[in-house]
What we know:
6-stranded mixed β-sheet; 24% strand; 16% helix; Jelly Rolls; 35 strands; disordered N terminus; alpha/beta; TIM Barrel; 11 helices
Amino acid sequence: METGASSAFAVHLPVRIARDSGNDPNSSLTGTSAVDVPTPTVKNGHTFSFSHDGESFLLDGEPFQIRSGEMHPARIPAEYWQHRILMAKAMGMNCIALYVMWNYHETSPGVFDFRTGNRNIEAFIRLCQQEGMWVLLRPGPYICGEWDLGGIPSYLLSYPDIQLRTDFANDPRYMSAVARYIRELSPRIEPLLVSHGGPILMIQIENEFGSYASNPAYLEEIRQIWFQEGVQGPFYTEDGIRQLEQNRTNVTGGAIALSNGDAEQIAAVRREFPAVPAMAGEVYPGWLTHWGDEGLNGTAVDISGTLDALMQLKRSFNLYVIHGGTSFGFYAGANVDADSGEYQPDITSYDYAAPISEQGVATLKYMKYRGVIARYLSTPLPDLPKPVPTISRKGGEALMPELCASIWDNLPAALPAAQTVDPQPFELYGQAFGFVLYRKKLQRNCYGVLDIKDVHDYATVFVGEQYVGGVSRAFMPEHRARPLNVTHRAPLTIPLVSSAPDSDVSLELLVEGMGRVNYGHAMIDRKGILEPLTLQDAGGWSDTLTGWEVFLLPMDTAFIANLRSVCANPRKAGLFFKATLPLDATGDTYLDMCNWTKGVVWVNGHNLGRYWNIGPQQRLYCPAPWLRPGDNEVIIFDQHQLEAKPVELARMLS
């Protein structure tokens, strides 16, 4: 597709950086010059700025230590926002850092939601202010964050030649979409800046761009869009120290935050960049976990020494994350291993071994770090808020779901044949998440080796009504893959499947798109079948398969709400199971899926996320606000399971 070919995405950038603007890096094509570090207009008694020597952050002209804990509203039910903010405050934080996930708010081009549920960013920021907390805003457009495509909307991948995270000259389609996003976000943010009486101290420009490229024009264009929308900072950037030094990815007049930073790195950056202050922008108290890892990562991390040094020297810092929460639905991201090239999807839980657990509990780490911080403060820390109640049911009280529907009896109309000569990825069909069914009629008695060159990310394969195996982009342990006949980076043998005389059979691939890569240069990560499929018979004859039927299965709220309770063939995998959970009183709980294979769970219409028996996560978090007294509906879609198994309720992740 040529640049600008689709009018659906043609939103033009309001400004561009002049390539011939002389010695003024802040000049734009509008003819106005931007002020690097503006003097805030005091509307409510506070100013936030940097000292002239770059040594300190200044609040109302006095040195100010930022003690920030990061949490993400998109990963926390809105009913728990206040509890988590108060938990951070009780640990000694005076600030909350938060990502804004662009693709969580613009799910289709030009359609934004900043109001419903936990998408109301303004409400979260005002709640921070209500509880006496400052805010560091991290709106991207790219955030990483173990979030699908690093927060960038997947609709941009409908352009076959799209370039992400680049300036207007290299790809105006991307930067036009960025401008549209910032234009929508900025009027919600501008009144909440500290200079206007709000709690927002600084706004981050992009995220860890030094780990991706060196392109000052791109970062400056983002900064100029904010300027054009009336948001004049202060701004800051976030990078690893080596990447910052190599690619010089700070912005003019902006502060510098360091990933995996500590007091020594702050000192090194101050020597290299003396004009602006630096902080430890991501201090890691835990770490992320992929499906198939041996255990939940980060549990052995202890940052007591790092915190002690930062507090002793009064250096600013942000704990990434103080509370991780949950990547509900289909929003968990993925990585690609730099050495092996293996695709590594992230688990649903974003517990991260953080001081505040996924369920909001103060861990042993929390109490230890709280003690370190308290030693350096002149006033006592507030008491911890009361814990959230939990519920559990085990043994004879476990849920016992029953078969309720089949995906095969809930297929929508197939796409027009003109769109499906060759199988295409989700994004070219306008689908962001969920599943797509690809169906091809085969001549009877056709069998052999199916070469699926590039499936993203997991496919169950059927010939007629018979399951014949699966294909996984992610590595699976042998004891899990072998019983299911699931291959990894290898063709799949299709056995001879008997059919009625003179009749054709259907080859069907039910493909699940898992998390899009959120870090590095493999981010152009489309979902579905990306290359033509070939079938080679026993005699060596090979045929490229064309002429598919394609059925879009987003598995969104509307799809689940409209499921028809029909199952013509209960022996064909791809089944829905239902259980009723009666409750006298609600509380947080975890659904233990250790007896199930691979799939998704909904409770009262809320998507709890994916489970997979390769682990290490076996339990899915269900927050109390999504439950109700009386009967609660639990729906499970499993890609392999034919028989229902019990589901126990537990009080914690593991």
